[in-house]
Design brief:
With 183 residues, this protein is mainly α. It has one domain (2-144): Serine Threonine Protein Phosphatase 5, Tetratricopeptide repeat, CATH 1.25.40. Helix content is 62%, strand content 0%.
Length: 183
């Protein structure tokens, strides 16, 4: 990201491509680096390559929220808000808002406001509110169980056996049998 902020588009592009090649992405999807590649192609003026990058990615993963979100920003810069909205709206209009696509609903809301798409905006806001309410209900449900904790186990302390010829534990200096052991 710092390379992009510094205007070092080619270096950022090279870096992200190397990182994508270096790892197998078993435990991560690499979306951040893939988004950066597409974004940097656009920034470097390689518009057709950028489009091809995102289009190929979206053919494999047609509902990838990260790809769609960054692609929409690139489209907005080059082709305008209407192009960005066309891309995003097909993913959110008549679809439920979920954890996976919430970022797209946020983006669509912003674009719909700029374009004065009142009907779409109402749909988007309703879906976001419904999703957020379901998340609150899930939090409330989970909060019921937050107070549960395992009982604290007390360690078993084995008493040390005191033999008659041992020093008395009271500290008198006498043998146990001659002191406290008489009682």
């Amino acid at each position: 990201m710092e390379l992009g902020n510094a205007g070092e588009y080619e270096k950022r592009l090279e870096f992200c491509n190397k990182v994508l090649e270096m790892f197998d992405w078993t435990y991560d999807d690499g979306d951040g680096f893939r988004c950066a590649v597409g974004e940097e192609l656009y920034e470097a003026g390689k518009i057709e390559e950028g489009k091809a990058w995102f289009d190929n990615w979206l053919q494999k993963e047609p509902h990838n929220a990260n790809a769609l979100n960054v692609y929409s920003w690139c489209l907005q810069k080059r082709e305008g808000i209407e192009a960005a909205y066309r891309l995003i709206s097909r993913e959110v209009i008549n679809c439920a808002c979920t954890m996976d696509n919430y970022i797209l609903f946020d983006r669509a809301e912003s674009l719909a406001q700029h374009l004065h798409r009142e009907a779409d905006l109402k749909w988007i806001e309703t879906q976001k509110q419904s999703f957020l309410k379901s998340m609150e209900m899930a939090d409330d449900y989970n909060d019921m169980y937050d107070d549960f904790s395992m009982p604290v186990q007390q360690p078993i302390v084995k008493e040390t056996k005191i033999y008659p010829n041992d020093p008395c534990p009271c500290g008198s200096g006498k043998k146990y049998k001659k002191c406290c052991g008489r009682r």
